[in-house]
Every structure is written in structure tokens, then in C-alpha cells.
Design a protein that fits this description.
The chain is of the alpha/beta class. It has a single domain, classed as Rossmann fold (3-Layer(aba) Sandwich). 38% of the residues lie in helices and 19% in strands. The strands form three sheets. A seven-stranded parallel β-sheet has the order 2-1-3-4-5-9-12, sandwiched between helices. A three-stranded mixed β-sheet has the order 6-7-11.
């Protein structure tokens, strides 16, 4: 692929998207950011036709701040439909979309919404590659904030192999700028990207809290009414044997952000 390919990045100001933009620009590509802050709305499609004019590839790293399954599903399915409809008319050749490892059996929350997102993007006219990623390092501090109640921080019991957002961004760029997959690879498993080792959410939460100097007890909780509880707790969200493992451990990453 030549160095001046025109590539649009949906969610360009987000946790992964901003790194995607930086990497593409460093490689010399013509980058078109798609976000509300630059006047392009994936849901209303305002400004989308103009943004996708002349674009060859779309990298979709967009997300929604809502963990509510209904709201998130509406966001993802609407954005997928608009990117396909407007992108197809504009002549977009490929899309690369980030998703989450191990969500095939998800029935609730954000993970179920991402599963609906995968189904929606794969049903459209533009060829799509899905990259499944583990939970981001950057997710832990947010989780700690949600779970803190006074001097106790409640953290869900969950097996994960945390990965840095910039590592996921690099993997998305590699897919988008690499050769298009052969038609016969359609049934192959989605490529996956994860960190170098399994991490305990409780242990990494303690690392985050230690930086604040507060004396906070971390308590692991298991939600019996969550239909996805077994997926979170039994390792279903860990990477498959074919996954690429890359980037720093959580502790290494946290030290680097000091």
C-alpha cells in the first residue's frame, strides 16, 4: 500500500482512535478524523459523506460511554449502518473494526452490544475485518472509579489479559494497511490482540490505588444476576491460542505513565 492512502478513523479522539491517527500520520497517510468534535456524527450521518469522499479504508475505533446494552447496541448498529451506506456510495474499499475477545456467548451489557456491532458491520456491503482486543490498560482506572465506595473498592471477579490501547491501535493499522484478506479466509477466526500475560483485576486495581496514597481495601465481587458472569470468571475473555500477545504488562505500563 502506498504511503499516501486516504484513511478515515471513526472515533478519532477516543482511547484507541487517537493513537490510530498518530500512527497513520507518522506513516505518511492522508488521515480523515471522524468525530463529533470535527463536525462528523456517526449517528445522524451529519458530515459523513463529505468526510468519506475519496477515502479508501475506514478504521472504526468508535465507542459509546454508556455501558447500557440497549443504548450501546443502538449506537453501534446505527453507526455500522451509516458507515456502510455512506461509505459504499463514496467508494470505500475496506473497513477494519475493533471488537472484544471472547464475546460470542455474551448476553448482557457492553459486550453483548459489541457482538451486535460485529454482526451489523459484517452484514454490510463493504468488506470488513474485525480485530478482537482484550480489555485496555486504560480501563482499570475507570473501573476503580466506578467501584469505589468510601474506603472500599469493589472490583468484579474477572480473568483478563490487559493490553495497552496504543498496542491495539498499531494492530488495527497493520490490518488496514496490510494486504486485503483472501475471500476464502472469510470463515477464519477473528485476529486477536492481547497483553503479554493474564492479569488479576484485583491486583491491578491495588496498583492504581497505591498511586493515590489512599488506604483503600479492594474487595472482589461476583454478580449472581449477571448472565455473563461465567464468561467473566472462567477465562472466556482470555485470548485464543492464535492471538498476538504484545506490549507491556499492566505494571510496566503504569510505571511508564507516571
Amino acid at each position: 500500500m502506498n504511503a499516501h492512502t486516504k484513511i478515515a478513523v471513526a472515533g478519532a479522539t477516543g482511547r484507541v482512535g487517537r493513537h490510530v491517527v498518530e500512527i497513520l500520520e507518522a506513516q505518511g497517510h492522508d488521515v480523515v478524523p471522524i468525530s463529533r468534535s470535527v463536525g462528523v456524527d456517526l449517528i445522524t450521518a451529519e458530515g459523513l459523506a463529505e468526510a468519506l469522499t475519496g477515502v479508501e479504508i475506514v478504521i472504526d475505533a468508535s465507542s459509546t460511554p454508556s455501558p447500557d446494552q440497549t443504548e450501546a447496541t443502538e449506537f453501534f448498529t446505527t453507526s455500522a449502518r451509516n458507515l456502510h451506506e455512506v461509505g459504499h456510495k463514496a467508494g470505500v474499499r475496506r473497513m477494519v473494526v475493533v471488537s472484544i475477545i471472547g464475546i460470542d456467548e455474551s448476553k448482557a451489557g457492553y459486550n453483548a452490544a459489541k457482538l451486535a456491532h460485529e454482526q451489523a458491520v459484517l452484514a454490510g456491503p463493504i468488506p470488513v475485518q474485525v480485530l478482537r482486543a482484550a480489555q485496555f490498560h486504560e480501563f482499570v482506572e475507570q473501573l476503580v472509579g466506578w467501584g469505589r465506595q468510601g474506603d472500599v473498592c469493589y472490583v468484579p471477579k474477572m480473568r483478563t489479559q490487559l493490553v495497552a490501547a496504543n498496542v491495539v491501535a498499531q494492530a488495527l493499522v497493520d490490518l488496514a494497511t496490510g494486504p486485503a484478506p483472501a475471500p476464502e479466509s472469510t470463515g477464519a477466526p477473528f485476529p486477536e490482540i492481547a497483553g503479554p500475560r493474564e492479569e488479576s483485576l484485583a491486583e491491578v486495581a491495588k496498583l492504581v490505588l497505591a498511586r493515590t496514597g489512599d488506604v483503600v481495601r479492594v474487595e472482589v465481587v461476583s454478580d449472581p444476576v449477571n448472565p455473563d458472569r461465567d464468561l467473566f470468571e472462567n477465562g472466556a475473555l482470555l485470548p485464543s491460542p492464535h492471538a498476538t500477545l504484545a506490549g507491556p504488562t499492566y505494571q510496566e505500563w503504569l510505571a511508564g505513565t507516571s
